[in-house]
Amino acid sequence: MKITFPHMGNTYVALKVIFEELGVKVIIPPRCNKNTLELGTLYSPELMCIPFKITVGNYLESIENGADTMFMWGGCDVCRIGYYNTIQKDILENLGHDIKMFCVEPMKSTKEIKDFLKKLNFVSGSKNYLKILPIFMKGLKTLYEIDEFDDLVLKKRPREINKGEVDTLYAEFKRKINRVNGYKKTKETIKEYREKLLEIKVDNEREVLKVGIVGEIYTVVEPFINQYLIERLGNMGVEVHRSVTSSEFVKEQLDFIPFMKSDKDEVHRAASPYLDTEIGGHARHTVGNTVLYSERDFDGVIHLLPFTCMPEIVAQSILTTVEKEKNIPILKLVLDEMTGETGYLTRIEAFIDLLESRKESKLYERNISWR
Question: What is the pLDDT of residues 245-254, one digit of tens each?
Fold first, then answer.
């Protein structure tokens, strides 16, 4: 068995650890690129969202490298991710690929966790739950550690003294993390590069803009889909905060376990005046986190959503009201395979110029009032 899974930011590192610890051969798809998107778009239904098309491309590239087993996470409510694995399996089989597809549904009870562990048992050829559960926990720890590492990158990048130092280190980290095998080596690599990252000199007195990123999880955490937005913003002197991360998403799925507490309750509270029910995807989180960013004095918010994503389209319409009532600028960016880089960057640069002007005006008004 040679197993693969789609890219969604650095989530693949935790999955790689789990399957390597189980003794399964892992085929990591090439990082998402133009070829990935073109392949996925060619064989996907036209009106499916860009995360669907990217994951189809990931699978096809992995199959070319020898993968015969696909792993995918599922979804619920009205988000179409709940249908991904079924449709994608049909697409791959129609193309003549004899593959196995494993889908993990949202883990909202001990039953779903047991179902997931059963699938891991099948993949590993073992029936020993005492072996499987610790490996699952190693995967979770890896996910948290790599998201914490990414958060430190986001704080360091806009404040670095030597421009490009963070990006150089991060590129080196990504190359090495792919080469190491198993939990111990992966953990050591994350620790090694975290220590190197902490050594990078920064100017803590530098005034930087703070921008929150909200929206559908794939478009927020997968750099290729959002055209490396978070990296670009950091290099423009903007501290970025991601409202959704892979580790927080997992915490929310497992928050019925006492030590897996997530921020879900706070986010739902913030969203409740505008959206007080679950409608699928990350719509409720998009609204709630935008409200929280306004309460925490962020300079602006960028809303990322795939074209045709119904939950985020609903959230987009609500954000117009939130923007006015909470007095926080919001840039809405709809992403698909036709998104052009030039127009995309122009809108982002104009938005950052707006936020800088707005911040300067606020500082001026504050100085006048002190006099």
Answer: 988 877 776 6
